Every structure is written in C-alpha cells, then in structure tokens.
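pipeline: protein-struct stage 2 | run 1193 | Glycerol-3-phosphate acyltransferase
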Amino acid sequence: MTYVGYGLIFIGAYLLGCFSSSYFLGRWFLKDDVRNYGSGNAGATNMTRVFGISYGLLALVMDALKGVIAALVGTWLLGPVGGYVGALGAIVGHNWPVFMKFKGGKGIATSIGALLVLMPIPMLIIIASLVILLFITGYVSLSSILGAASVPIYAAISGYGGTPFLVFAILVAAMALFSHRQNIVRLIKGEEKRFTWESLKKKAGKSKQG
C-alpha cells in the first residue's frame, strides 16, 4: 500500500510540475510563447532574457513553489521518502510536461524549492555560494550545474538523510545535468552566453542560445 501511495504522490506532483509558469505568464500577459525565443526553454532564465527580470523573477518564484508544495505534501503524507518522491515528480513534470509535448524547463527553480524544504540550512548556504559564483562568472548555467552537483556530494560526505536522500540527490543532479547538456558543451567551447544586467534592459528574444 505504501508503494501505491508513493505512486499517487509522484503522479500528483508530476501534474503540479506540468504547470509551466513561464509559458502561462507569457500567454496570459504578453500573448506570446517564451519557447519561441532564446533557448526555446520554458524556464525562468529564458523568461528573464526574453521578457525581462520582472517576469523572470515571478516565474522563478512560481516554479520554486511547485517544488515546495510537492515536497511538503509528500512529506506530510508519507514522511521523508514521500517528500523525495513528491519533489522528483514536480521536477520531472516541470522538465517534461505532458500537456506541452514534454518541452518544459530545466528544473533548477523547482529543485531549489523542494530542497529548501528537505534540507533548508545546507540549501541556503548552497544558494548563497551560487549567487556569488553567478556574479563572478556571469554564467547561470554553470551556477545551476555546480549547485545540482553539490547536493549529492554534500549528502555523501555528511550522511544527511541517509541512503534515501542520497539516491534522491543523485537523481536530481542527473536530471539537471541532462537538461543542461547543451550548456555544458557550450561552456567547454567558450560559447555560453553570459548573464549581464544590460541584457535585462531589453527583450533578448532572437538568439537561439541560453
């Protein structure tokens, strides 16, 4: 019966994750589809580059809330493992939403929201470190990749949450790395686009990179 419960939590969280904040904000308020511009990605980073920081931040908060809700409800229903299952469901739904032909975001904001529930203090430290790295390098993708990779490393070294959390952390990192595979190639080639404050002053929609 517990496994059925985990399955129901995953399905419910997946459907929640399928609500694409960037897509619906663009459609409702701007009558446009963010996936037609930039990286073609329905995530907060592309939303910021295409439509500006206000819409980008709103999408970021909304995407993070999906992870928060999924992790909280899952934990409330079936304990820590239920929280991990809920978080995974929300991230998968955000990245590969069935209602949008499986073309969603990269899951970083949703992962951050879930991890703030599941490991709040360590995650705040990781976020602070990544913000500093972002301002130093200008690479959103690099900060996202290193942040995702740092979670299973932390779990393995500290023993936080035991084996279930380590497995969860590895899966989250694997999804983040997979979603950023093109960014990784561009970083290696030195072709990745940097984040600049100047770029937020205009709609950066025409470039097919992000």
